[in-house]
Amino acid sequence: GSDDGLVHLSRDNGATWHDVTPPDLPEWSTVSTIEVSPHDPATAYLCASRYRLDDNRPLLFKTADFGKTWLSIGDGLPQDDFTRVIREDPIRRGLLFAGTETGLYLSWDDGANWQRFQLNLPVVPVYDLAFKDTDLIAATHGRAFWVLDDLTALRAMNNDVIGSAAHLFRPRSSFRIRNGGAAKVLPGVNYTGGTGGVSFVEEKRPDGETVRVLLDAGKNPPDGVIVSYYLKERPKETVTLELLDQQGTVIQSFTSKPEPVTAADRPAQPPEDTVSPPPSPGSEEKQVPKEAGVNRFVWNMRYADARKVPGDIPTERSLAGPLASPGTYQVRLTAGGKTYTESFEIRKDPRVPATREDLDAQFELLVQVRDKLSETHDAVNSVRSLRRQLEEWLRRAEDNPNRKALTEAASRIKQRLGAIEEELIQAKARGESDRLNYPGRLNVKLVHLTAVIASADAIPTRQSYEVFTELSGRIDAQLSELRDAIERDLPAFTAMIEKEQVPAIVPKTAPGG
Q1: How far apart are CA 127 and CA 239, in angstroms?
Q2: Global pTM?
Q3: Of the four, 225, 253, 282, 498, which is 20 to 30 A from 106 by CA?
Q4: What does the alpha-carbon distance between residue 204 and residue 189 come to, in Å, rounded to a whole number?
């Protein structure tokens, strides 16, 4: 193609050339792109422009016989938005993308019809387009490179999908890549470390996910497995996404945000003593979108976090779940009372020398540490709950003549429970600065051990196994002590309460009564 409106073809490696210029290509057009179809060598797409001659019409042509005949395919585009590039998807035949002076267009039917495909791309000249695996890359004039991550849904979209109530697309294979860690982020502008540091802020999206917004650098694709699904209409029912391991066991489960209660759904005369229920567990976790059309959810490839002790004290932060090992997994979508399942693959980072067996061993140890931390935090929660109940019973027994005996028995139990708690968690820490003022307890040691095991994609060291065994033994001793207190001390105290007939509810005298 040349800038004087001529097109020539050679089929003998350039030894001879033949004029195959489209008859309808206006004279003196600039031929900017000739895209040979990746599906058929006889098919090619031609893009030209005449804006330097004050002609802004889009000029797109197609041949299916090595240029013997041409068909104009630019009529479906705005007639004042001249074209710069056309490309055909290498996977789905007839899926075309055209870059113009103002952005991007898409055709599902080989150029017969076109639609605007701008998304969040600025209104900007698109000079060229390229495919990299499942991504589409656009080279713009003055607004950098743009990448459309994951063309899976576009390539699979058809009339059957559009006509169905819901459809789950098979996720593309994803590489298992660890992120850069979880350093504390301050309010406002933060900076990444190193000489190449860039500024960023963190924002919380409506779906509950916290995202990092770079202020002076390009954005990387989502970290994790991209799950795309289609919903013909926005369902009122909850939409659920479940991730399953290679044995079919649920790894993580996510749901959509509950529908708001309308006036028609509320009872006509609610009871006067009705109270608002507390937020459901995980209510601030990432939520599943359920808008009409194609939705996208990104799973970070991690298993569930360790259970935690309520509060945001550093020693009580939850332990991030371990990163999934390379292998085959499943995603299950439940929408409108129907279930859809697709499999996908998590691949090992090709830059990592660790073997699959190494990563499996790392994963198994991290799961053991996570479960032990959950068990530790469950014990702390149980201790604190028991202590609160003891104090409540003592308040109810304020007027009991044998209150002294009850107080002494409760104090002994509380002292025993306090000693257990003191070994499992640093109860004196009340803020960020307290990390240095008080020694860390067993739960913090497990958190630090996790950081060591997960510091690289490698098989755990012998010392990591030994430390875990030692910490587990010390934790198990405290758990055994707690079980003994629950099985022996609490029944004895309960018997005292029953003997003294301490009331379950103590009414307060009403004003003026």
Answers
A1: 40
A2: 0.82
A3: 225
A4: 15
